[in-house]
Structure formats: structure tokens, C-alpha cells
Specification:
Blueprint (H helix, E strand, L loop, with lengths): L11 H9 L5 H5 L5 E3 L15 E14 L5 E8 L2 E7 L4 H6 L5 E7 L1 E3 L2 E5 L2 E4 L11 E3 L8 H13 L10 H6 L5 H9 L7 H5 L4 H27 L11 H8 L6 H14 L6 E6 L5 H14 L3 E5 L3 H15 L6 E4 L5 H12 L5 E4 L13 E6 L7 H8 L7 E6 L5 H6 L5 E5 L10 E6 L3 H13 L3 E5 L7 H18 L5 E4 L5 H12 L5 E4 L12 E6 L7 H8 L10 E6 L5 H12 L3 H12 L1 H5 L1 H4 L13 H17 L1 H12 L9
Parallel strand pairs: 4-7, 10-15, 10-16, 11-13, 11-14, 12-13, 14-15, 17-22, 18-20, 18-21, 19-20, 21-22
Antiparallel strand pairs: 1-9, 2-3, 2-5, 3-4, 5-8, 6-7
The structure holds adenosine-5'-diphosphate and magnesium ion.
Magnesium ion binds next to helix 11.
Catalytic activity: Couples ATP hydrolysis with the unwinding of duplex DNA by translocating in the 3'-5' direction; ATP + H2O = ADP + phosphate + H(+)
EC number: 5.6.2.4
Family: Belongs to the helicase family. RecG subfamily.
Length: about 675
């Protein structure tokens, strides 16, 4: 990989500026692709200008003045053989006044608008033209840049890189891309940095030209290849093999008050099979809110325990971990299986006892929060790590848990944020995925209502009635992302208001700043039906399971993300009672807020909602990538380029089979900056 410092033409300041963009070598520079383009390849006659389009015009300045009405502005008129065009500058330098002197010949570029005196351009770029100035031969690229690095110098730097033929070598067999009607890598780079003037600006900007598609394909292919390699690596690592369970699982199933759905049975079989293998499972178990993932995880745990190994079950919040602990106790205590409980907040004594039983192997199942992967936690023989709400954890945390086993433990990750197919095909290609695609029977669908905050009185009345009839309700406080202190104040205020409003009800409050033991106490009260109304922040978003709760009111629903609303709403509708979720909004909804609420209103299907979320927010948010460390796609777009994703998937298989050298070259080019974290 050629570093910029190896090329004489790059000066020190230039290299320093490029470093600000994260570019240190020629490959990085070549793959720094334009955001958009401007067409300076021909000069348009004033007569032929069209409103709203950008164009280049050449002519002589015939009038120039600084006017003060309605505000200070530099106004000039440029004339060519066909007519006159107004140029308007609302802020300007003395040098511009000079450049726009009457008699000067200029070439200006800008968007055409209609002004009082006919066509005008506001803040066009202007160039003085001499006798011999030629028009550009290719479209002019506009690059993403940083302060201190001008477009002109960036263009120059990239121009130099484009001279280094060796850097643009082809990584793929020609037949492979030709079959897909894609051009070569080198041709694509040249065409994207310096497009032919005949290419449609729109096609370039949509990234739908063959050249853009070639690079998007390459990027997707690199992702597929690297995921596939990680997958292969995993299969070469050994893990403990667990025989099918003969007793524990059937004993558990017999004790349940329900039968598994066929979707649960299907995924349980997939997991059971994985655990009999000699290499570590890495399976993502997806299932919509309330689909019953916990019992499936418990079955996997039992297979592991029956084979004499330990299981760790990790949840992202104390509330959820606590709830899992209780549920596991109720399921496993009758089977005589010892469970340890580990959180950051327990007393030293409890903690030491737990740690000892984990280390000597007495505890077969360990349930906890992030505390599970801390240094002091030593397992006797960790065989399976189960991670609930996996998108809430960072890559490093999952990696740390995996390293607690020797040999490498199996991993089961669970998520209620359904991942649209294109996303799981790309970002999760190194995982096996199981989907629970059906809800347990007997759930009546949740009715969602969108109600203006102006009708709050009515809603309060409704909460009162529901609670007095023996149902339970959640009141979710508005989300205040900017400030935890404000969030706390809001929760306390809401709680006080509710107490004032409903003196006849027993009301609880739970928020993120409470001590874990306090949270647990509040949740236990609510679970047991002692409190009727629970005022809560979004801490209850994941996992909380109180079947008798059938009404939820979410304040300022417009501030929340779609997946978040869906998760919150999933806290009701868990029992047989008909459930309602009321989304209160503040008037003056923005267009996107309106669109989002509409999605939630119309759909109860987590997959449809996630798909919409993907369109509105992009993959980073959905994957929780801010903390996951997965390198994001820069060129390809999973919505637009589905066909390329499919093609890349097929091509990856072919290359890995027959073209090992090409695979390495390709990964070298594309993954040089992506880092090692993909494999987790
Ligand atoms: P999630 O997939 O959201 O984690 P849970 O595992 O918490 O869902 O299950 C939601 C509720 O459904 C729990 O109370 C659980 O005991 C119950 N449940 C799970 N499977 C079934 C089933 N097959 N039939 C009826 N109820 C079930
Ligand atoms: Mg769950």
C-alpha cells in the first residue's frame, strides 16, 4: 500500500490536511469519491438558461453596483450575445467588487433563479477568462472536505493519485465483473473522478451509473469476503460438544403452562444442533417483542448444563437481568439447578459468594449485567454465553465474555430489533440467524392510538378507569436525550402530577438514576400487582414482562425512534386482556415525526417497522453501530443495491473457492482501514 509520504508531489501541509480526512495512502485518496458534480464543460447562452438548473455562462460585465436596499448586496449584470443575467452577492469581499468591474469578461457558474429583472444567480462562482481559456473537458467533482483543504487542492491531490497506474490494479477476474455488466476498477475510478460530460448528472448523483455500481459491488464483495473468512475461522476453532438433552429439557417443557409455538420448536432445534458441533456456535436469535425467546434460551442452557458445562446469561439492564434471574429461578429451581446472580450493585458479600460458586462450578447458570465479563469473574467451565438484546452491547463486551471460556464457548445472541433481510445479509453474514416468526397464541393485538396532547384529560380518565377495573398501566415520560438531569426532573414531575391526579391509585416510579435495588423493588411491586400505575422512563424499553399491564401511555411519542416505540409498546399485550397503547404528541408535528408515528400506528409487525426505520434513519442506528464497531458501508446502499448485494454474495463463494489470491488482493484494498472488529 503506497503511503502519500512516498510520493514527492505531496507536500507536508497537503499530507497533514488529508490526514484530517483519514487519508494516509493512495488507495484512500483514490477511494475518496465525489459527493456531487458540477458541469463546467459547456457554456450556456443566457437565452437558453432554464430555471432551477445549474449552468455556466460567459459574458462581459455591463453594470455593477453595491446596493443598500433592501439590504447590502453586490449586484452585477453580465451580458452575452443572447441576453443579460443578474449576479447577486449578499456578502462579498473587496476583491470581488474588483473582479466584477464593468468591462471584465467572466465565466460564472451557479443555479438559475428568476429575479425581478429576469434570470439571476445568487453567489455564482466566477472565473476571469482570457483569450485562450478552455472549458473543462470533464464534469468537475465536488468532494467531501474539511476546513483548510480547498476543492482545488483536493482535486489536484486526487489527480496525482490517478496518475499512479499501479495503484488502480484490478483485483477481480475480468469475467466476474464483465458478467455483471460492470466496468473495470481503474475505468470506474477515472470515470467517477472525472466524468465524461455526456453522463447524466442525475445518474451520477443517484450513484446508478455502471461505474458507481462497480465500486459499490466491490465494497459489498469485500464485506462478504471478510465475513465469510471470519465464519470459516470460527469453524476451525474448537468448542465443547454437547449431546442432545435427554432429561432436563423435557422436564422443563412438562412444567410449563404453555406449549411451544412451532416457530419456537424450529429455532430450538437449530440451536440444539449447533451445540452438538465441535466448533463454537454464533447464532443470532431474532424474534419480535413477546415472541418467547427466553424459553428457547433456557432450553439451550439446559443442554449445556446437562453436559456438565456452565452457562452465562447477560442482559443490558439491571431490570431485565433481574427479571431473567427470577424467571430462571422459577423454571430451574424445580430441576435442582443452581443459579448465581451478578450485578455491579450487589453487596461485596453477595458478590464474593456468587464469584466463588461460579469459579468452583457449583453455579450452573449465571445471570447478570455487564458485571459478568469483568476481570474477577472466573468460570470453571463456560460452555455457552447467551446475550439478550445483543444490539445493546458493544463488540468488546461480547468479545470479553467469549474469552471467559476455554475452549471458546458457544454464543447465542438474542434481539427483538428485527433486522431487515438486506442488513442481516451484509452486516450479520458471519452469524447464523434463527427467526421466531410467530407470536404465542391468544394474544389480542395491541390497539395503537395517536392522540394530541390537547386531549390529555380524556387520557387521564382512561388510565383511571383501566386501573380501577383491575388492569395495570404504564405512563412513559418524555425522552430528554440531551440531559440526564432534565430527564430525572421530568420523571419526578410526572410522578408528582400523577399522584395529584390519582389519589385513589397506587403509583410507582422507575427511572435510570435509581439504585438497582430500588428499581427492583418498584418492578417487583408492579409485577405483583401491588402498584396499579407505573410511571417510567424508557428504562422499561427492553424485556420487561408484566402480563397484567394492558394500557400504556407514551408522552411526546414524536421524540422517540420507531424501534424504541415498538419495543415500548411491546410491554403491553403480553396477557389475554385487550391492550392499548396511546401515543401522545405535541402539536406541530414535523413531516418525519408524522411519517414515523404513522408507521407505528399502522403496523404491529417488528420487521415492517425495522424496514421503515432503516429507510428513515439508515443502518447505523438500527444496528446500534455507534457502539458496535462494525465498519459501515460508504458507497453501497442496501436499499438501492440489493441486486449487487445478491451478486456479491454469489461472487464471494466463487472467489473463495477458486481465486484465493484475488480474495487477498481485494480485501487488502477495501479492508485496510476497517479493522479487526468484524469478526466478533
Ligand atoms: P421476548 O421474545 O420478547 O423475550 P419472552 O421470552 O419474554 O419474549 O416471552 C413473552 C411472554 O410469553 C412470557 O411471559 C413467556 O413466558 C410467554 N411465552 C413464551 N412462549 C410462549 C408460548 N409458546 N405460549 C404462550 N406463552 C409463551
Ligand atoms: Mg426478551
Amino acid at each position: 500500500m503506497t503511503q502519500l509520504t512516498q510520493i514527492k508531489a505531496y507536500t507536508k501541509p497537503m499530507i497533514a490536511n488529508l490526514a484530517k480526512l483519514g487519508i494516509s495512502n493512495l488507495q484512500g485518496l483514490l477511494l475518496h469519491l465525489p459527493l456531487r458534480y458540477i458541469d463546467e464543460t459547456h457554456v450556456t447562452a443566457v437565452r437558453d438558461l432554464r430555471m432551477g438548473e445549474s449552468a455556466q455562462v460567459e459574458g462581459e460585465i455591463v453594470h455593477a453596483e453595491v446596493s443598500y436596499k433592501p439590504r447590502k448586496a453586490l449586484i452585477a449584470r453580465l451580458e452575452d450575445a443572447s441576453g443579460q443575467l443578474t449576479l447577486r452577492f449578499l456578502h462579498f469581499y473587496p476583491s470581488q467588487i474588483n473582479a466584477l468591474k464593468v468591462g471584465n469578461t467572466l465565466r460564472v457558474y451557479g443555479e438559475v433563479r428568476s429575479g425581478f429583472f429576469g434570470y439571476e444567480m445568487v453567489h455564482p462562482t466566477c472565473k476571469a477568462v482570457g483569450e485562450k481559456t478552455i472549458v473543462a473537458e470533464t464534469l468537475t467533482p465536488v468532494y467531501p472536505t474539511v476546513a483548510g483543504l480547498s476543492q482545488a487542492s483536493l482535486r489536484k491531490a486526487i489527480g496525482i493519485a490517478l496518475q499512479q497506474q499501479g495503484e488502480m490494479h484490478e483485483t477481480l477476474p475480468a469475467a466476474l465483473y464483465a458478467d455483471l455488466n460492470l466496468p473495470s476498477f481503474a475505468a470506474s475510478l477515472v470515470a467517477l473522478h472525472h466524468p465524461h460530460p455526456e453522463v447524466s448528472l442525475r445518474a451520477l448523483e443517484n450513484k446508478s451509473t455502471a461505474h458507481w455500481r462497480r465500486l459499490a459491488f466491490d465494497e459489498l464483495l469485500a464485506q462478504q469476503l471478510s465475513m465469510r473468512k471470519h465464519y470459516a475461522r470460527r469453524r476451525s476453532v474448537s468448542a465443547p460438544q454437547f449431546k442432545r438433552s435427554k432429561q432436563l429439557i423435557s422436564a422443563l417443557l412438562k412444567s410449563l403452562p404453555f406449549a411451544l409455538t412451532s416457530a419456537q420448536q424450529k429455532v430450538a432445534l437449530e440451536i440444539e444442533h449447533d451445540l452438538t458441533q465441535a466448533h463454537p456456535m454464533q447464532r443470532l436469535l431474532q424474534g419480535d417483542v413477546g415472541s418467547g425467546k427466553t424459553i428457547v434460551a433456557c432450553m439451550a442452557a439446559l443442554q449445556c448444563v446437562e453436559n456438565g458445562w456452565q452457562v452465562a446469561l447477560m442482559a443490558p439492564t439491571e431490570i431485565l437481568a433481574e427479571q431473567h434471574y427470577r424467571k430462571m429461578l422459577s423454571w430451574l429451581q424445580p430441576l435442582d439447578i443452581k443459579i448465581a446472580w451478578l450485578t455491579g450493585s450487589q453487596s461485596k458479600k453477595d458478590r464474593d459468594t456468587a464469584l466463588a460458586s461460579i469459579a468452583n462450578g457449583e453455579a450452573k447458570l449465571v445471570v447478570g449485567t455487564h458485571a459478568l465479563f469483568q476481570e474477577a469473574v472466573r468460570f470453571k467451565s463456560l460452555g455457552l454465553a447467551i446475550i439478550d438484546e445483543q444490539h445493546r452491547f458493544g463488540v468488546h463486551q461480547r468479545l470479553a465474555l467469549r474469552q471467559k471460556g476455554q475452549p471458546e464457548p458457544h454464543q447465542l445472541m438474542m434481539s427483538a430489533t428485527p433486522i431487515p433481510r438486506t442488513l442481516s445479509m451484509s452486516y450479520y453474514a458471519d452469524l447464523d440467524v434463527s427467526v421466531i416468526d410467530e407470536l404465542p397464541p391468544g394474544r389480542s393485538p395491541i390497539v395503537t392510538k395517536i392522540v394530541s396532547d390537547a386531549r390529555r384529560e380524556e387520557i387521564l380518565q382512561r388510565v383511571r378507569e383501566a386501573c380501577l377495573q383491575g388492569n395495570q398501566a404504564y405512563w412513559v415520560c418524555p425522552l430528554i436525550e440531551e440531559s440526564e438531569a432534565l430527564q430525572l426532573a421530568t420523571a419526578n414531575d410526572t410522578y408528582a402530577l400523577m399522584q395529584e391526579e390519582f389519589p385513589e391509585l397506587r403509583i410507582g416510579l422507575v427511572h435510570g438514576r435509581m439504585k438497582p435495588s430500588e428499581k427492583q423493588a418498584v418492578m417487583a411491586e408492579f409485577s405483583a400487582g401491588h402498584t396499579q400505575l407505573l410511571v417510567a422512563t424508557t428504562v422499561i424499553e427492553v424485556g420487561v414482562d408484566v402480563p397484567n399491564a394492558s394500557l400504556m401511555v407514551i408522552e411526546h411519542a414524536e421524540r422517540m425512534g420507531l424501534s424504541q416505540l415498538h419495543q415500548l409498546r411491546g410491554r403491553v399485550g403480553r396477557g389475554a386482556a385487550k391492550s392499548t397503547c396511546i401515543l401522545l404528541y405535541q402539536n406541530k408535528l414535523s413531516e418525519t415525526a408524522r411519517a414515523r408515528l404513522k408507521v407505528i400506528y399502522e403496523s404491529n409487525d417488528g420487521f415492517a417497522i425495522a424496514q421503515a426505520d432503516l429507510q428513515i434513519r439508515g443502518p447505523g442506528e438500527l444496528l446500534g453501530v455507534r457502539q458496535s464497531g462494525v465498519p459501515m458501508l460508504k458507497i453501497a446502499d442496501l436499499e438501492r443495491d440489493v441486486d449487487l448485494l445478491e451478486a456479491a454474495k454469489a461472487a464471494a463463494d466463487k472467489l473463495l473457492q477458486s481465486y484465493p489470491a484475488e480474495v487477498e488482493r481485494h480485501l487488502d484494498r477495501w479492508m485496510s482501514t476497517a479493522g479487526e472488529l468484524v469478526k466478533v
